[in-house]
Amino acid sequence: MGLPQTAVTLSPENIAELSQKLGDMRHNINNQLSLIIAAVELCRRKPEALERMLASMEKQPGKVMAEMRTFTAEFEGALGIKRDEETLVG
Fold first, then answer.
1. Count of other CB atoms within 10 angstroms of residue 57
2. Whole-angstrom distance, CA of residue 21 vs CA of residue 75
3. Angle between helix 12-45 and helix 50-79 axes, rounded to 10 deg
4. In angstroms, how far is CA 15 from the centroid of its own chain?
5. For residue 71, what are the contacts with CB-CB under 8 A and spacing of at least 6?
6. Cβ(39)–Cβ(81) below 8 Å
7. pLDDT tens, position by position, 4-38
8. Of 63, 64, 83, 89, which has the fewest beta carbons less than 10 angstroms from its beta carbon?
9. How far is the C-alpha of 56 from the C-alpha of 58, rounded, in Å?
């Protein structure tokens, strides 16, 4: 990982934009986790819904990871942090 060699200055607008993106990421991840929780509860009450709910639950971790990757890329870009190719995959 390459860190900036000089001080990084963020304007109030940059900080507001990062804060908004962080809030969006938290909101979206909370939504995806809520879907998993709702699916588990539904499966407890209606075991016959298991197959349908599993399909929904299986998609959520990938969506959470995508949200985190997107925010991480924007955050690191704003701070001038460069990642090695192999660390971008995870």
1. 18
2. 9
3. 170
4. 19
5. 21, 22, 24, 25
6. no
7. 999 999 999 999 999 999 999 999 999 999 999 99
8. 89
9. 6
Q: What is the pTM of this model?
A: 0.82
Q: Which two tokens stand for residue 11?
A: 């304007």
Q: Which residues make beta-bridge pairs with 2?
A: 82
- Using CA of residue 62, residue 64, residue 66, residue 68, what is the dihedral sign? negative
Q: How many Cβ atoms sit within 10 Å of the Cβ of residue 53? A: 19
Q: Of how many residues is the chain composed?
A: 90
Q: Please answer whether residues 19 and 71 qualify as being in contact, where contact means their C-beta atoms are separated by less than 8 angstroms.
A: no
- Dig out the tokens for 62 from the structure: 């990938």
Neighbours of 62 (CB within 10 A): 10
Distance of CA 18 to the CA centre of its chain: 14
Contact in structure between 36 and 60 (CB atoms under 8 Å): yes
Q: Which residue has the tokens 């900036």?
A: 4
Q: How many CB atoms lie within 10 A of CB 18?
A: 16
